[in-house]
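Look over this entry.
=====
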Amino acid sequence: MIGGTAAEPTLRKSLTVGENGETLLSNVMWTDLYRPETLFDLVGNEGAVNELFGWLKDWDDVHIRGNKKEMPKFRFSKNWADVPRPNAKAALVSGPPGIGKSSACRIICKHLGY
């Protein structure tokens, strides 16, 4: 609650073209109007997005069909947290608010048919 009243979502009037070519106004939230819809719309975090995409793409093959992927060779100079885990059953996506975690997960899942 802001100032004693419930905060209303900010709506933006967008122009759309109807079937007859007329211009229509529709109330759409700004965040929905400009949210990314494809993998190419995602900006930044390319390494993390590609890693999540590759892991989810192979998930069925690894966990349903049982075809385990070979683990990368571990170098002692690396930290255990930096070693990729291609056979993991779950992914933990974390980071500060607003960097696109939910958008990336939603788009990757939609692209892969989940």
Remarks:
- The longest strand covers residues 11-17.
